[in-house]
């Protein structure tokens, strides 16, 4: 088997061992004699004698075409004749690949399709894909044309995101007749704006009487065509100056406190960023305001309430335990009495002691 690329040169060699002066000739696929010994009867100047001896006939065929494909015969005139065969296969490289995108630009989060076509090859080529440095696989269809050539078309479907904008997509055509051929396109992805509010002035705290300048930085594809300022739950101060993406407020006071929002939009969608304005007293320090941690405060209150409940429970149990240990003077001694009358007599302050309380006068 001899494989040769179209337009290049194929070499056919007929070798004989121990030739006994028999004639060697080379025949083409149509059984026409190309060379008889060292003579060329065929009127095709592309065949050239490279070497001739008793044991070898070597012929070069230049500028090979697809019509030169087939089985060539080395024939030795003996009785009976001896033959050997050489099959020539002509390789035809594909033309330059053609890459096409279904859309010029696609919005983020949507699918797009890219096709790559390689025409006029033999045998059929194969196609692989790369997105950046990542290998991808498409769906290929091969068609055979009337002239025994092949056309291959591969389609790649992929989801695109904002980060894919500008990423190269490459189709690579593989064929044995040539080194890899490539065609490339770049993804164009449209995405909604990215918005950020920048404080141009002041650098520190926003104090009463000072001025405030905010700039809305918005980037998207296409570039945002509209930027709006608004104040949540209220109107923007009447004397505020809005110039495109800039918001300027002079002579701040606490009535301006609130959340200011910048909204940017383009054909894909809209996005926003917020700035919370808090105006401090004109003598406020340079440090940032401390945020009240409501969780910590709630925890402290819970601990205090729990401690007070525990104290109340302890005091309640203490008083309950000692409540029956107090007796009146009249009840003293009652525990040792045999009956109620004796208990009354024995009780301190009872009638048995009434004599002790009498006063005598002389």
Structure overview:
There is one protein chain. By secondary structure, the protein is mainly β. It contains two helices and 24 strands. The strands form six sheets. The protein has a five-stranded mixed sheet with strand order 1-8-7-3-4, with no helix packed on it. The protein has a five-stranded mixed sheet with strand order 10-18-19-22-21, with no helix packed on it. The chain is elongated and about 140 Å long. The N and C termini lie far apart (167 Å). Mean pLDDT is 86; it is low at 287-292, 325-332 and 347-362.
* Number of H/I helices: 2
Estimated share of beta-strand residues: 35-45%
The main β sheet shows up as: 5 strands, mixed
Q: State the low-pLDDT regions, or none.
A: 287-292, 325-332, 347-362
Structural class: mainly beta
The amount of helix comes to under 10%
pLDDT average, as an integer?
A: 86
Q: Give the terminus-to-terminus CA distance.
A: 167 Å
Strand order of the largest sheet: 1-8-7-3-4
Approximate shape: elongated
Topology:
Elements: E1 2-5, E2 10-15, E3 24-27, E4 33-36, E5 47-52, E6 56-61, E7 70-76, E8 82-91, E9 98-101, E10 106-107, E11 111-121, E12 126-131, E13 134-136, E14 139-144, E15 150-159, E16 168-175, E17 178-186, E18 189-201, E19 212-221, E20 226-231, E21 241-243, E22 246-249, E23 258-265, E24 270-277, H1 294-322, H2 340-346
Parallel strand pairs: 1-8, 10-18
Antiparallel strand pairs: 2-6, 3-4, 3-7, 5-6, 7-8, 9-11, 11-15, 12-13, 12-16, 14-15, 16-17, 18-19, 19-22, 20-23, 21-22, 23-24
